[in-house]
From TrEMBL:
Binds 1 zinc ion per subunit. This is Metalloendopeptidase. The keyword Protease applies. It holds the Pfam family Astacin. It comes from Rhizophagus irregularis (strain DAOM 181602 / DAOM 197198 / MUCL 43194). The active site is at residue 23. Its cofactor is Zn(2+). Zn(2+) binds at residues 22, 26, 32. Residues 1-80 form the Peptidase M12A domain. Its EC number is 3.4.24.-. It is an enzyme of class 3 (hydrolase). InterPro entries: MetalloPept_cat_dom_sf (IPR024079), Peptidase_M12A (IPR001506). Keywords: Hydrolase, Metal-binding, Metalloprotease, Protease, Zinc.
């Protein structure tokens, strides 16, 4: 998903190269995968715990369906 702007609330991947790639993709304009417009079909999100906002389809450009293995996805134990 391409972003118009992104707030940096990310707490890193387990591997430094993965973290650098993730941040580079933010610089290229990509959003977090868990903000994908159709994420609610695939995830249960506790909205009161973290900043896991979901974007509307007209707000972002998506290049496919939700991708669980995307480097732009937070780890399941990450805190935002």
């Amino acid at each position: 998903m391409l972003a118009s702007k992104e707030e940096n609330s990310y707490q890193g991947l387990a591997h430094p190269i993965g973290s650098a790639m993730h941040e580079l993709l933010h610089a290229c304009g990509m959003y977090h995968e868990h903000s994908h417009p159709d994420r609610d079909k695939y995830l249960f999100v506790q909205n009161n715990s973290y900043d896991y906002r979901r974007y509307e389809p007209n707000d972002v450009r998506c290049f496919g369906n939700y991708d669980f293995k995307s480097i732009m996805h937070y780890q399941d134990n990450a805190k935002c």
